[in-house]
Amino acid sequence: MADKKFSGVIPPVVVPLKQDRSLDVASFEKSVNRMIEAGVDGLFILGSSSEVVFSTDERRREVISNMVRIVDGRVPVLAGIIDTETERMIEHGKAAEQLGVDALVATCPFYALQGIDEIEWSFRCLHDALDLPLFAYDIPVCVHNKLDWKMLLRLGEDGVLTGVKDSSGDDISFRFLCIANEEAGHPLTLLTGHEVVVDGAYLGGADGSVPGLANVEPYGYVRMWKAAQEGDWATVKAEQDRLARIMHITDVTKGVKGFGAGVGAFKTALMLMGIFETNQMPRPVHSLKGENVDAIRKVLVDTGLLEG
Prior knowledge:
Blueprint: E1 8-9, H1 25-38, E2 43-45, H2 57-71, E3 77-80, H3 86-99, E4 103-106, H4 116-129, E5 134-138, H5 140-143, H6 149-157, E6 163-166, H7 171-183, E7 189-192, H8 198-204, E8 208-209, H9 218-229, H10 233-246, H11 259-272, H12 290-302
Parallel strand pairs: 1-8, 2-3, 3-4, 4-5, 5-6, 6-7, 7-8
């Protein structure tokens, strides 16, 4: 049976930077404590929202060590060990284990692109080399491979994977996995990474969510999870609709796309709300400025997160 301590709302933490791009520890503490106080069930560090692929090994260690210190055992900490190939992921995994995280999260290899047999073997190699629970991160837009749901279930049944974070955008595959996982006795904890359709994922059998927007508005995601546990689907839908309106911070900007539009919008919102000092981005991504900041401010005002 999947370890249910990893269920519920587990935001992928956005990492604040100072103007010189050093880690803004004070803002980091403020944001992490705010999410824990809102009632989240865990925190995922060094995923896409945490700028993992922009981070040196030293920055990865700095982020994890500060995260573990700030959290101080209040909720589980999942750490991404994402890298191009298996051996590098093993190195990151051993470092994360030594720093005191509770679980590891890995994509498939993504430079020397491989087929399903090699991808499956990679996860098995990670499991054999590392001691902590292992989650598969399904994000084909970044790694150029969609994880096969039958493979994921097989790895769950074999005890290789504890769970899956699904950011694939393939709701059909995720639904198939949810059904098959239940029929197999629920060997996997299944988490959706899609902020705007969490309600549907819960209805389909997901064990929790990993919403980047929860950095900006964690309270609604916590209320939605609690309502889902009580079977109050009207409240679940109402909360999701409200959060979907806030998510427009990621599509009101102009001249920017991808990471700069998504995580850039989260950072800008957190700056406008007084949680981050800056909305600085890692090189070579530009920070949002001018009219783009104004557009995000308007969404926050219109949805009640900022005063007009």
